[in-house]
Amino acid sequence: MASDLEKQAKEAFIDDHFELAVDLYTKAIEISPKNADLYVDRAQANIKLSNFTEAVADANRAIELEPSNAKAYLRKGTACIKLEEFETAKAALEKGASLLPGDSRFTGLIKECDQRIAEENGDLRKLSLETSSSTNMPTEDVQPVEIVNEPPNQVTVTPAKPKYRHEFYQKPEEVVVTIFAKGVPADNVAVEFGEQILSVSIDVSGEGDAYHFQPRLFGKIIPEKCRYLVLSTKVEIHLAKAEVIRWTSLEFSKETAVTQRVSSSGRRAPELDSCAKFAVSVSERPTYPSSKPKRTDWDKLEAEVKKEEKEEKLDGDAALNKFFRGIYQDADEDTRRAMSKSFVESHGTVLSTNWKEVGTKKVEGSPPDGMELKKWEY
Prior knowledge:
Blueprint: H1 2-14, H2 18-31, H3 36-48, H4 52-65, H5 70-82, H6 86-99, H7 104-121, H8 124-133, H9 139-146, E1 166-171, E2 174-179, E3 189-193, E4 198-202, E5 211-213, E6 227-230, E7 235-240, H10 254-261, H11 274-284, H12 298-311, H13 316-330, H14 333-345, H15 355-358
Antiparallel strand pairs: 1-2, 2-7, 3-4, 4-5, 6-7
Helix pairs in contact: 1-2, 2-3, 3-4, 3-5, 4-5, 5-6, 5-7, 6-7
């Protein structure tokens, strides 16, 4: 039944088995194709897998089936942000916010869209003034924008807006962000990755208010290679760098943007086509030892072993055994039966290849000259 598949899919999602969750939701949808919640949940799993286009498609289908489903607009907005479609994302989020007033998830993401749109338009200062002077938005809702580049120095948890200290360190190809949130259930943590955006939501109050950390990152990342772990004392986020460069900070700033985005010819790096960007990143990327196992051509290996065995030169009993093995390997079924029967019945003293001769009678032992055959009783 669809309900059983939905339950299994939710369990797989909680265990971070997102691909399995997508498969189970797909099977449930085949049974119950008019269930909007199934599309909403599959969209969330697709977002975790960085399948943002598929997530938008699922969200649109859910909206079509149930226009009042607020979560569908939340999923669409989240996926569109990852696709850097900020105008579309904002429109979807505003619609969802009107259906679910007071939900801080919509408020935080809408402000994220406003910030990104303002950055694209080069109008950050105007956005800051408009936000601070707004009388329609509570003061506490402005705080996520203010703390993006100035995180608190210590863990502070309040019923209205929990806050957690965070830090980061880096490796040549990875940045590890740690948020010190102790004892938070895994299903209360949502982490999403964009091309140069990290979005973390931790809902611990159960009253709609949640902790949001949504910085624009210093450099670009590879969303499909990013991952996160929810541990007993912290949330550990692993960001895969798109380029092997040293991040001087976790978050984006105008000073670092110039050095990262301008190529040696003076043109902005985003203007290069995908093939050119790939060529540049490959040529500039240093090589590091890898623990990834090399692919083994087993057919080639088997052929080499057989060739070595064939060319191997043996002496004495080893050479004789090899000779008999060759006969047995190339023989037909009757010859093999004759060899097996004669060898067993004669206690290893006779080896015949003539089935007509040994097939109708018992083969008696024939010890070598000067030796006698002795039967052992067990």
